[in-house]
Amino acid sequence: MNRLDSSAQGVYLITVTPFTDSGALDLASTDRMVDFCLEKGVTGLTVLGIMGEATKLTAEESRTFVKQVLARVNGKVPVVVGASAPGFAAMKELTDSVMDLGASGVMVAPPPSVRTDDQILSYFQMVDETLGAKVPWVLQDHPVSTTVQMSASVILRILKNSPTCVMLKHEDWPGLAKLSAIRAASDKGEVKRVSILTGNGGGLFLPEELTRGADGAMTGFAYPEMMVDVVAAHARGDRERAHDLFDAYLPLARYEQQAGVGLAVRKQLFQDRGVITSAFVRKPGPKLSDKDLADIALLVRRQDKRLRELA
Fold first, then answer.
1. Domain presence at residue 244
2. Which of 133, 139, 166, 209 sees the fewest Cβ atoms within 10 Å?
3. Does the pLDDT at position 202 exceed 80?
4. Is position 218 annotated in a ligand binding site?
């Protein structure tokens, strides 16, 4: 098993959950999606995230999907599973199940019910106790979806108190100053150094976040090769190339990040690329119009043109 640890870096792509046109799990498309991601060079995969429609799956469907992904990955890259749940019993049950199947770790976000700093700290102390000493976990900071604001100082206190928290999924927006503060604290030895993977707006600030000290990205985009190539260019010191590549994909990445319809756009692009058979989004979910599809086609054509120019 590729057990998650604080040295993690690169691109952990947050996957969609493929369905058939009737809404059933599509395990054949799941296999193609895993193969596609590996071919594009991702460092890891994250499943059952917010954009993975985790809340629309039954407990049995969640386990079936994770088992399929892990079997197809076959140890080639680490797989992180979203384990956020309203109660700790459900979190523990899912965590134990996926870790037994071979997951590398789990990801936990705070519930909307915690508001004060003390409540947040108490909650993640209970997360530590629930998951146990052998399960590495990712702290997900995504206030846009959770409505929970965690300051840099609170995150640093969580990291100090949680020996098995090995990664921060940084998704606050704006969040560059917070990222800088957390990385500066670890550089000074004030807190252990953990991996920081960003997901800010689907990677809309990826070059700047890498410059601020992020170790890579953990987010979704129908063109994972963008993140892979940008992270690689930045790692070898070619920041201009990293920005040029990022700029070429930015219009489509921005379009995919529209609130409400973003998942439908991403699934449509995956279908257009032959990765999944159906772009079906479970209810409640949006359906794209003919005008939406025309927008996507235009953006893809312009993106292809720009990439040819860069090559």
1. no
2. 133
3. no
4. yes
